[in-house]
Design a protein that fits this description.
Elements (H helix, E strand, L loop, with lengths): L17 E2 L3 E4 L2 E4 L7 E2 L10 E4 L2 E4 L4 E2 L1 E6 L13 E6 L13 H4 L9 E2 L2 H10 L4 E4 L8 H13 L3 E6 L5 H9 L3 E5 L5 H8 L4 H13 L3 E8 L7 H15 L5 E5 L13 H13 L5 E4 L4 H4 L1 E2 L6 E6 L2 E5 L28 E3 L5
Parallel strand pairs: 9-11, 11-12, 12-13, 13-14, 14-15, 15-16
Antiparallel strand pairs: 1-6, 2-3, 3-4, 5-6, 7-10, 8-9, 8-20, 17-18, 18-19
Helix pairs in contact: 2-3
Length: about 375
């Protein structure tokens, strides 16, 4: 799916350019091979994501080592409920995005058109030091999609692996087959935003396509060791019909397996969307549809719903991890096992973390 860049020639500081890994030449243009957009750029022209630029040497990344901010979050906020529960995660992103979601709830970062928004600089070593000093067990690439800053994310991931820190990608999964193996080889866990289950929704509200996301999910679950959870933001009147939710849940069950956790998250009006906020009852109904379809783990998010936050054993039905918002309130696992002997899929340590629901901004480097 070849696309013309959405930006005309834009100024940038050559000192900020980092060589890109995925591109090829097509006449007098360079074509970015990182995501399905395949932006074809003349030298000096930016791609649709705004942070990848054509140069005489190829495609370059303008945001290596530059971030829109850093924060220590509970891992459950990513959301990941089966990956090191209760632990803190150092979270950061950059600017730009390769989707154009009309409902984006991080649009001040993901749709940023000014590099002035990037106030902090951090090398991979800086991020490892910050994670250690805050006792984080992992580092998350989030706030905007890490696919578009893949070179930076992979350099950070390599430093994290050397320091025994886990890595998390919070992503829409909109990545090309030629890049995804290398990108996800650097990740220990991923939460993939499955925006909807119709191509029409993706095309009209995200300027993207559904199939590449489904292919990414199948690749992650069947061909990697990355722990995967899925989030669908439910927007009233757009992607919350019962037939669509049933189709989505059946696809997850049949194509990925019932063990993959599915989170239904509440939408609120933002950016270019004015639909009313998602009622709690819609999220609870979606969760029940998922359970009725045979999924073992279904959760509600962005709302106060202790039952929808709780992990239930698929064997005996007992509540094995209880949560209130992002805080663990009860833990009934021995390692990863319920008292009935059922193993709960995920990445668990002998004891849960005690970070709770805190969010702690972190300053790294300077502008």
């Amino acid at each position: 799916m070849r696309e013309e860049p959405t930006s005309a020639v834009e100024p940038f500081d050559p000192a900020d350019l980092h060589p890109g890994r995925w591109w090829h030449r097509d006449g007098d243009r360079v074509v970015c091979d990182l995501c399905p957009r395949a932006c074809a750029m003349h030298p000096g022209q930016r791609g649709a994501c705004f942070v990848r630029v054509g140069t005489e040497q190829g495609v370059a990344l303008t945001t290596w080592g530059r971030s829109s901010g850093f924060c220590v979050d509970p891992i459950e906020k990513k959301p990941l409920n089966h990956f090191l529960p209760g632990t803190p995660v150092l979270s950061f992103g950059t600017a730009g995005c390769n989707l154009a979601c009309r409902f984006c709830q991080n649009h001040d970062v993901s749709r940023a058109r000014s590099m002035d928004a990037l106030m902090d600089r951090a090398t991979p070593a800086d991020l490892v030091a910050a994670a250690r000093s805050t006792h984080s067990r992992s580092v998350a690439f989030t706030y905007n999609d890490p696919v578009i800053f893949a070179e930076y994310a992979l350099d950070v991931a390599a430093a994290c692996r050397a320091a025994d820190l886990k890595t998390v990608a919070v992503t829409a999964g909109y990545i090309s087959p030629g890049a995804r193996a290398e990108f996800f080889a650097g990740m220990d866990a991923a939460n993939v935003d499955l925006k909807a289950f119709t191509d029409g929704f993706y095309r009209s509200l995200c300027a993207a396509r559904l199939d590449p996301v489904l292919e990414t999910l199948k690749y992650l679950v069947h061909e990697t060791s990355v722990w995967v959870e899925i989030t669908t933001l439910l927007i009233p009147g757009e992607n919350d019909s019962e037939p669509e939710l049933q189709a989505l849940c059946r696809w997850v069950r049949d194509e990925l397996g019932p063990q993959v956790p599915l989170h239904f998250s509440g939408y609120h009006p933002d950016h270019r969307m004015t639909n009313p906020a998602t009622p709690l009852t819609t999220l609870q109904r979606a969760r029940q549809i998922a359970l009725d379809a045979g999924l073992w783990f279904a959760y509600t998010g962005n709302v106060h719903d202790p039952e929808g936050d709780t992990t239930f054993c698929p064997g005996c039905g007992a509540a094995v991890i209880e949560r209130d918002w992002y805080e663990l309130t009860a833990w009934r696992l021995d390692g990863a096992r319920c008292a009935c002997g059922q193993t709960i899929p995920g990445v668990f340590e002998d004891r849960p973390g005690t970070w709770g629901r805190r969010r702690m901004p972190v300053v790294i480097g300077g502008g």
